[in-house]
Amino acid sequence: MREPRLRIDDLYGIVGHWPRLRLPAGACATLAGPSGSGKSRLLRALADLDPSRGTVHLDGTPREHFRGPQWRRQVVYLPADSSWWAEYVGDHLAAVEAETLATLGFEPDVAQWRIERLSTGERSRLALARAVALGPRVLLLDEPTANLDEATTDAVERVVEGRRGDGLSAVWVTHDPEQAKRLRAQRFELVDGVARERA
Q1: Residue 1 confidence (pLDDT)
Q2: In terms of DSSP bridges, do strands 53-58 and 61-62 run parallel, antiparallel, or are they unpaired?
Q3: Closest Cα to residue 103, out of 75, 132, 138?
Q4: How far apart are CA 97 and CA 103, in angstroms?
Q5: For 116, which of 8, 62, 134, 192 is 20 to 30 Å away at the CA?
Q6: What's the rounded Cα separation, in Å, for the pair 26 and 4?
Q7: Would the CA dihedral through 53, 55, 59, 65 be positive or negative?
Q8: Nearest 10 degrees: CA dihedral of 14, 188, 126, 93?
Q9: How many CB atoms lie within 10 A of CB 30?
Q10: By C-alpha distance, which of 20, 14, 17, 15 is closest to 6?
């Protein structure tokens, strides 16, 4: 029997507990729950950015067999508010394909834009382009479409969907049940601090 891309057994973060997840390559799981319930903290625990205990495997290999930076390059966390450390967009996008930028609504000259001119939505979309360019095996998305209109949300979903066709697995925080359906996702909800699977 083939190992799932991401396997969780009793992951406890600073806030939240994910008892069990079996996520095949190319599959998606969504996580919903009230604001402040710990969804972001669970993603950070998965990415090994916050302290946690429990068992997490990537393609059958335990997380503790990876060095921290090595794990975080394979299991990439995309926060709701991304970090930008250089003056120009292009300084962050060396490996990003023009096709990805175009799908997300950007012309190639976006590389010459100053970071300070970007809107919140533009930062979110460019952070996604930056994340998928790393070639991760798992992408942890923290409400990537929360501030986007319908057309831009569709573009974000198409970019992730295209990478899923190449085997990328995704854990996606969303409050939208229709989005979960479009993503053909296993659905989880954080209830009293526990990520419980929903039908």
Answers
A1: 66
A2: antiparallel
A3: 132
A4: 10
A5: 134
A6: 10
A7: positive
A8: 70
A9: 23
A10: 20
Q: What share of the chain is helix, strand, coil (3-state, %, to 5)?
A: 35, 25, 35
Instruction: Kindly give the interhelix angle for 120-133 and 150-164, rounded to the nearest 10 degrees.
Output: 10
37-63 residue pLDDT tens: 899 999 999 999 999 999 999 999 999
Distance CA 167, CA 145 (A): 22
Q: Which helix (DSSP H) or strand (DSSP E) does residue 154 occupy? A: helix 150-164
Q: Classify 177 as helix, strand or coil.
A: helix
Tokens of 116: 């300070």
Distance separating alpha carbons of residues 90 and 171, to the nearest angstrom = 27
Contact 45, 193 (CB under 8 A): no
Max intra-chain CA distance, the chain: 50
Q: Which residues contact 183 (CB under 8 A, 6 or more apart)?
A: 28, 30, 157, 160, 161, 170, 172
Please give the single-letter amino acid code of residue 8.
Answer: I
Q: What is the pTM for the complete model shown?
A: 0.94
